[in-house]
UniProtKB/TrEMBL annotation:
It holds the Pfam family DUF3304. This is DUF3304 domain-containing protein. It comes from the Bacteria. It comes from Paraburkholderia caribensis. InterPro entries: DUF3304.
Length: 172
C-alpha cells in the first residue's frame, strides 16, 4: 500500500506533540521566535521530513521538497519558535520518488547543530533553511534579513529560492 509520507509524518508529529501543546518549552532560552522554515533540496530525489529539537521533542513542523532538477524547494511554514544558532536540531526524512512508499523507504535521521548567528533584535525576518544534499547529508541554518523598503537579501539565502539553479555543497 502506498502512503504519502507527508500524511504519515503529519500524523506522527501531531500525535507526539499533542501533550506538549500549551507548554512553554518552545519559548525557552536558545529559541528564536517568529521563524519561517524553508527547504532547499540539492538531491535528485523527493524529500519528506520533520524536525525535532536536540532532545528529540517534535517541533510540529515538517514538509517536502522537490528534487533539485524540479526546482529543489518545498513550501514555507511561518512563523514558529525554532532553535537558535549553536543549538541542536534533529531532522528525520525519507527520500525517494514523488509517490514514495513510506513503509518500504528507510527513515533517516541526523542531529545537527544549527549554523548561522543569532538574529539581531529589531524589525527582521528570520529564516531557518533545512538543506538536503546527496549522500544523505543535511544541514540547518538560521539567518535574518531586515524588513522594509531598503531591505537587502542575505547572501546566505539559497539562490534556488529565486528560481536560479545554483548547486550548493554542504558547508558552503
Amino acid at each position: 500500500m502506498k502512503i504519502h509520507i507527508g500524511n504519515r509524518i503529519a500524523l506522527a508529529i501531531f500525535t507526539a506533540a499533542t501533550p506538549l501543546l500549551g507548554c512553554a518549552s518552545l519559548s525557552q532560552i536558545g529559541y528564536v521566535p517568529e521563524v519561517a522554515v524553508v527547504t532547499a533540496n540539492y538531491t535528485d530525489k523527493y524529500v519528506y521530513y520533520s524536525l525535532a529539537d536536540g532532545d528529540d521533542r517534535p517541533l510540529n513542523i515538517g514538509g517536502s521538497a522537490h528534487p533539485f532538477a524540479n526546482g529543489g524547494t518545498g513550501g514555507t511554514d511561518c512563523c514558529r519558535a525554532m532553535p537558535n544558532a549553536g543549538q541542536k536540531i534533529t531532522v528525520r526524512w525519507q527520500e525517494g520518488t514523488k509517490d514514495i512508499n513510506a513503509d518500504k523507504t528507510p527513515l533517516l535521521h541526523k542531529t545537527v547543530t544549527v549554523r548561522g548567528s543569532s538574529p539581531p533584535s529589531g524589525d527582521r525576518f528570520n529564516y531557518m533553511i533545512v538543506r538536503f544534499f546527496s549522500g544523505q547529508q543535511v544541514e540547518v541554518e538560521i539567518l535574518s534579513e531586515p524588513n522594509g523598503p531598503r531591505a537587502t537579501r542575505d547572501p546566505r539565502l539559497d539562490k534556488i529560492f529565486y528560481g536560479q539553479r545554483v548547486m550548493r555543497q554542504i558547508g558552503d
